[in-house]
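Reopening this one. Same input as before:
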Amino acid sequence: MVTHDASTSETIYQFLSRLFPMGTQRGGDPGPAKTPLCPTDMFAAVASLVQRCELYRCIMPEAGVAAGSSPTRQLIISSAERENWIAWGAAWRKGPNVEPEDADPDDTGPEDAAGVDDHRDPEGIGGVDYDDAMNQINALWGKLLRDSNSPIHAQPSTGECAWWRTAIALLVISDEACIDLGFSSVGEPHWLEALLRQPAFKDEAWEDAEGDSNGSSEEQAEADLKVSSRHALRAATMDTFCVYASPYVARVVPKARVPGVGCTMRTLSHNLALLEPRDAAAINWLRQPGAAREDDKPLNILIVPFPHRVEATCFESHLRGDGNEAPPWGFFEIKQRWLSSSRGDEPTDEDRRAVVDFIMALVETAARDVGAIGALVLPEGALDWPTYVLLVDTISKSTHPVAGLEFLISGSSGFKDRPNNYVLTTSFLADKDGAFAVTTAQAKHHRWRLEENQIRGYALASALDPAGAWWENIEIDARRVGLNVFRAGSTFAAMICEDLARSEPCHAALRAVGPNLVFVLLMDGPQLPQRWAAQYSTVLADDPGSSVLTLTSKGLVRRANEVRRASTHAVALWKDDKNGLIQLECPPDVQGLTLTLSGRETGEATLDGRYNTNAISWHYHGHQNVRLDADARRKFAWLLE
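Same output, byte for byte:
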C-alpha cells in the first residue's frame, strides 16, 4: 500500500463530517453521529475511506489465502464474516417482516470470529431478523466512530488498522442492501420505499438530484421538458443515489458489471459504484417504470449506417486570425446536406419526412426477417433535431413492426434550439395511459481535429487545406454520461467518437458503473480490427466487461474506400467479453444490418469473495443484411446515391 504521512492525513471523523454536513438522517445533527439512514450514504462513506487508503489492494477471502503468505499485507475475510454481512444487508433491504413461525427465540445461533451473533432463518429464506440486523449495523457504525480519530492513511507496522475490518463489513452490508436498486420501480428495497413516504422528503433531500438544472420556474421547467403530450425530455440529472451524503464529496449510483480483471475499487462491489465528486461528470440515470422485460429475450438491433453519401462540401471551413498563421488555424462545420434532396443547407419538411419514411421502411423490411426490432441505432451526426423528433413521433404512433421497439439512438446536429454535436437517446416506455417516449441528450465532450492524413484519406482537400489545423466547431458542454435501463438487469450507454478515444472523467464513471452495452457513434472510416476504435472497445470489453458496438456511416466508408481503392464495407464493429472482434459489413446494395443479441447470466466475484451468478453479459449471435425492394430503392434514390 502507498505510504503517507499520517500526521498530515485527514482523519476519518473529519472526512465523515465533510461528507455529511447536514447529518446522516432527517432532522439530525450535522456530522456522522448517527448511523446513515440509507445504505447508499453508508456506502459513500466507507467506500471512500477504503478507496483513499487503497485498502482494496489487501482484501482477500479466506479461501484464497496463499499458503505461507504474510497476513500483514492481507485483510483476510472469513466465510462466517461474509455470510453475516450478506444476511444483514439482505435484512436491511427487505425491511421489517414477520419472523418465521418456527424460529426459536432462544436460539441466538453461532458466533463468528469477531463474536457477533449470527441470527439465521432456519430455512435460509427470510434472512436474519430486521431489528437484530440493524442492531449489528448500528454497532459497527459506532465502532467506526470510536476509531474515527485515526488518520485515513495511517499504516500499522504489523497487522491491520482497527477500523479496516469495520469499514469492509459496512461496505459489504450496504452493497447487499442495494440489490436491483435503480433497475425497476417494482420490488424496490424497503428502505427506499420507506424513505420516499417521508413528508417533504422529495422537496428537501433530493432537491440537488432532481431539481431544475437551469434555475427556471417549475412551470417553465415542465414546459421545457416536453416535446409533445407523450414525448418528454430528460434534462435534469440523477447523478447520485445518496440522500444525505454531499455529492461534492462523493457520489454513488447503481452498477451492472464487476470487472473480471484487476484489483481495483470497482471489483469490491456488486450493486453500487463509487463516483468522483460532482462537477467531474454528471450522470443521467433513466430507469423503467413497472416490470422490465427479461434479459434473456433476444434483442434485434437495426443498424442504419446513414448517410450513404457524404460530399466534401459537407465540410465547411472557417479560418481564424489573418490567415498567415503557420500552420493555418481554423474550424470546420458539418453541413448535413445529405438530409436535403437538393443538397442544400436546410432540408424541407418533405425531405425530413422522406428520411423518416426511409428509416421506417428499413424497420419494416428487417422485421419481416428477424421479427420484432428492439433497438434502432444511427451514426454520429446522422440526423438533425426536427428529423429526430419526427422519427420518435412516427415510431410512437406506429404499431407493428415497431410496437416492440425499446430504444432509439442517433447522432444529431442539435437538441431543441441548441445546435451542437449530440447523441440522442429515446426509451420507449409504457404506463397506465399507454406508450410514451423519454429522450435524453448528451453533447460531445471533445472536438474532432482533422489532420492532414485524414483530410487526404477522406478526399476533403477541396474543402479543408491539408496543411491546416482544423477543429470541429462545436460548443463544449458539461460532461454527461447517460445510463439507460432497458431490461430487468441491463443498462446501456452511448458515446460519440472522440469521447471513446480520450482519457477523461467519463471513462472512470463508465468503468465504475459497467454498463452492459456501450454504443459508440462515429464519423469515421471502415471499422477494422487494427484501427483505433477497435483498440479502445477492447479495453471496455475487458474492464468492466461491457459489450461494445461502434458504428459509422456508409458515406465516409465510401469516401475512404475511393481514396484507398479498398473494398471493405465494415460500417460497424462488435466486441463482447467472450467473442473476438466481429466486423459488420454493409455491401453497396445493402441499406442496413440487423444484429441479434441476447443477455446471458454470468458469474462475477468481488475481492471479498462474494459470488453473483445473475450479472448479464450481452453476446453476439449473428447479423443479417437489410435490403429494400426495387420500388423502395427508387422511391428513396436521392438518399442512397
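So the earlier flakiness isn't reproducible anymore. For the record, The CA atoms of residues 436 and 576 lie 31 Å apart.
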